[in-house]
Design goal:
mainly beta; disordered C terminus; 15 strands; 35% strand; 1 helix; 5% helix; 5-stranded antiparallel sheet
């Protein structure tokens, strides 16, 4: 019987290379930036520090109110569907027992769920646990990005300088507006109108708007 040759020892991949001086300086800069309020004209929609609590949140999506033209945020969770007015914070509708076949966006190829309340009869694209995404820029130069200099806690940055590496000072050209230290980040982004910022975690949704409750006109100016 022919003796099998001993297999060559599998080479183990080397360790990740150390951060360069530039990368370390950028990481330190991000770590040193405290959470701060979003700049004007942005204002928080909810009075709670961490937005509106939504246990078991799976994802969120945007729609437009057919009458007021306000941005609406649809929230999909393990406890059903909800719809918020993104200008006033009002809960517009709630469905605790949606049709099981459409209760989560992974049931269909385009990651949508049926609308409810004033947007019943439409379908809303949902971004979150099952995939998808929201706008990360606006036409007038605002940008959102997520960084994780201390994994696994994600930080959401708002900027008006084009994004990383943020040459300007924190608090003047870029702002650390959300730090997910307690729940898993699900989705973040702007509404298609550019008037709303949404950040969703597995336990809550936070919203910022730059639209007056009494303004039904165009996008607020920077």
């Amino acid at each position: 019987m022919k003796r099998l040759k001993r297999a060559d020892t599998v080479k183990q991949p080397g360790r990740e290379p150390a951060l360069s001086a530039y990368q370390q300086a950028l990481r330190d800069r991000l770590l040193d930036a405290p959470v701060m309020p979003a700049p004007e004209p942005w204002r928080p929609v909810f009075e709670y520090e961490y937005g509106a609590p939504v246990g078991g949140l799976l994802g969120i999506g945007f729609a437009t109110h057919p009458e007021s033209c306000h941005d609406l945020v649809m929230v999909v969770s393990r406890d059903g569907h909800g719809l918020f007015d993104a200008v006033t914070g009002e809960k517009m509708a709630r469905d605790r027992a949606p049709d099981p076949e459409g209760s989560t966006p992974d049931a269909v190829a385009d990651l949508t769920c049926p609308g409810l309340g004033p947007i019943a009869g439409s379908r809303v694209h949902i971004a979150g646990l099952f995939g998808g995404g929201l706008h990360t820029t606006t036409e007038d130069g605002w940008a959102l990005e997520v960084v994780t200099p201390a994994w696994p806690n994600d930080r959401v940055l708002l900027s008006g300088d084009g994004g990383l590496p943020h040459s300007g000072p924190h608090g003047e050209q870029w702002w650390h507006i959300f730090h997910s230290t307690y729940s898993e980040l699900r989705a973040f982004g702007f509404s298609p109108s550019g008037e709303t910022i949404a950040v969703a975690t597995s336990s809550d949704v936070s919203l910022w708007t730059r639209r007056s409750e009494h303004n039904n006109g165009s996008i607020a100016q920077r």
